[in-house]
Amino acid sequence: MPLDFTLTPEQEDIKGLAHEFAEKEIRPVAAHYDETEDFPWPVLKKAHEVGLTPVASMPEAYGGGGLDMIANMLIAEELHWGCAGIAVAITGTGLAAAAILAMGNEAQKQRWIGEFCNAKSPVVGAMG
How many domains, in total, are found in the chain? Predict the structure, then answer.
């Protein structure tokens, strides 16, 4: 049986939102962040406000958007079209959260995933 890769209407909407964000918010400032090597906090905050960070695919129980992984990959693809460096700054926040979701106990998930999902104060995580 062949696989159907047709996007759902929700996935199409997310893809369009991410593309528009990349076009209007990322591409115009990409050269600036490449030249200055500053962290793109303003862009990350805007992406977080509109739901285009890895938070979008985190479980709703922890404050995430509950989107499927295909929608998450569509977001990543469009943000990378805007600028790979800025996109990594945005999508990379999900790496630490994914480790907590996979290996953390319930108290850790409640504490830290909620922090990642807080739109008023986006956080980034690191693993080493």
Answer: 1
